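User: structure tokens for this one?
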Amino acid sequence: MDWISSLKHGLRLSNTDADEAAVQLATVVDSTESGSTTQDPAEDWRLQGDQNLTRRVGRFRRAASSIESAALAGAACAILLPLSSRLLLRQPGLGTSEAQRATWYADPGNQRWVLIGLSLAPFAAIAFLWFIAVIRRRLGEREDQFFSTVFLGSGFAFAFLTVISAAAAATPTLVVRYSQQEVPSPDVLALAHSLWFGLFVVSASRFAAVFMIVTSTIGMMFRALPRWVGICGYAFGLVLFVTGAFSDPLEFLFPVWLLVVSITLLVSRRVVEQEDGLSPQA
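Assistant:
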């Protein structure tokens, strides 16, 4: 349980910045309250509104940068990402006949599901960026510049490629929905599939692999993750980097790893809180 003790110590250190920000906000509120009594009722009302806004901003900042927030954001991305891919890949492939494509695209329900899949991709990317932001916020001044640069850069690249590849994959449905064509031409299908394969399967998978490896390194460096999670991150990242396996049968490697990391962060925080509650200092 050494990693639990280290995580407990790390969480206390990582909370320093948030506590300092809260103290600063409280100082502003106290200083405002001490001189809030004026002869002008409108000025008193304005000062009271500023105090309430300051408190709300402080509460939101602490909640948004909490470990729970990172865990929920990571879990949301782990669920939304494969769901978006599955909905987009429901479209007819290059090997289907024109009659099969005409039947499929004539159904408004099929088009609707593809558009839902396209809409879920940005939400998955946003949740992923939130996960990154909270992790960096928690590391604070302790983060290594080299690893933090790779961590942030690979995460940004993966989020960008995820959204762009989703738009490319949905091109056939968008062409049918917003043009006079009832069936996308084979050239449109070939272009959409080629762009999706190049952007998502080939490129995004490599950036996801780098992100997994560097996150596992940071987690093991600060003992914020158990050793077995870090080793799994190395193994999964290496497989993705070598194979680009963002398609069957290994397309769930990254979402599963991200979900495991998120659950580990959440459970670890609960363990730390329980130990604090049972400690004599509590």
